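Project outcomes to date are best conveyed with an example. Our students and postdoctoral researchers have been running inverse folding experiments weekly, and each run begins with a structure described purely in tokens. The record below, which covers 280 residues, was selected by the lab manager from last quarter's runs and is presented without edits.
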């Protein structure tokens, strides 16, 4: 059994509908694997697809739980790696999978028994996968994930920047986010029309209490849909008049600022103090 998968079967054409742009650049694959923390023993791989990253992980002696929803890709992975020690396949949708309760229990790989997560995420559902990871697992181990470059830039964007928004706030409340490197279209087959980038999500030292991610995201969506307006005007559309009157007397939140100027922590404090009970 080789470390790299066989070429595509002649009848198998990658699906645009499934976002199948598979990573084939061995140098990029090695850079992704090198981002895993020292001592990692096993990983969860999202969207294993053709198995190029899977093979590289296995060749370094790591256990791999490959999450792949596409039936034909799952059969291919099973044929290619099914007899390899440390390989397990889970045919499941990463946008709805509960990552806190994976079959077979938590894999080793970090001090608290939670395995790092790696993956080249399909562009069409990448943000949904990330939100589901945050919602069901948070970042209790490192995640090394590839996105379309514009999405990666939004994840790591600082307050006040053009790219800062809902995805920035939620991601940075869940983890320390760092854009590690960009990946050109030629590193994929078929080549996408846009650049990609790899983001590393590192667990927070003091994560604090877990927020209600669904309600928080709905609240942030309401604020950032009016991102150019002052915070007071944005909140007037979300809160009843009596609540707004109380909020205006609270000096904690500068209502003349704009949503894009608040730090992730300030957004969370605003939601917890004034918005959580208003979101169904």
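After processing, the design step wrote out the following sequence:
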């Amino acid at each position: 059994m080789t470390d790299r998968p066989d070429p595509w079967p002649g009848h198998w054409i990658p699906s645009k509908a499934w976002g199948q742009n598979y990573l084939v650049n061995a140098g990029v694959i090695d850079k992704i694997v090198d981002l895993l923390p020292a001592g990692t023993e096993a990983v969860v791989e999202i969207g294993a697809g053709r198995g190029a990253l899977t093979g590289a992980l296995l060749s370094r002696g790591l256990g791999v739980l490959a999450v792949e929803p596409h039936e034909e890709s799952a059969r291919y992975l099973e044929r290619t790696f099914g007899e390899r020690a440390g390989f397990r396949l889970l045919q499941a949708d990463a946008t709805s999978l509960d990552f806190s309760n994976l079959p077979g229990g938590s894999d080793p790989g970090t001090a608290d028994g939670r395995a790092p997560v790696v993956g080249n995420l399909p562009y069409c559902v990448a943000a949904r996968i990330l939100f589901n990871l945050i919602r069901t697992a948070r970042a209790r181990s490192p995640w090394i994930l590839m996105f379309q470059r514009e999405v990666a830039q939004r994840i790591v964007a600082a307050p006040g920047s053009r790219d800062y928004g809902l995805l920035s706030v939620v991601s940075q409340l869940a983890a320390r986010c760092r854009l590690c490197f960009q990946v050109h279209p030629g590193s994929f087959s078929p080549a996408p029309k846009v650049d990609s980038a790899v983001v590393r999500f590192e667990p927070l030292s003091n994560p604090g209490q877990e927020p209600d991610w669904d309600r928080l995201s709905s609240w942030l969506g309401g604020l950032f849909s009016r991102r150019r307006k002052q915070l007071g005007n944005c909140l007037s559309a979300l809160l009843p008049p009596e609540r707004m009157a109380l909020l205006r007397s609270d000096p904690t939140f500068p209502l003349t600022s704009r949503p894009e100027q608040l730090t992730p922590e300030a957004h969370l404090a605003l939601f917890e103090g004034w918005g959580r009970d208003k979101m169904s």
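Residues 1-11, 105-113 have pLDDT under 50 and may be disordered. The CA atoms of residues 37 and 46 lie 18 Å apart. The training component of this project remains on track.
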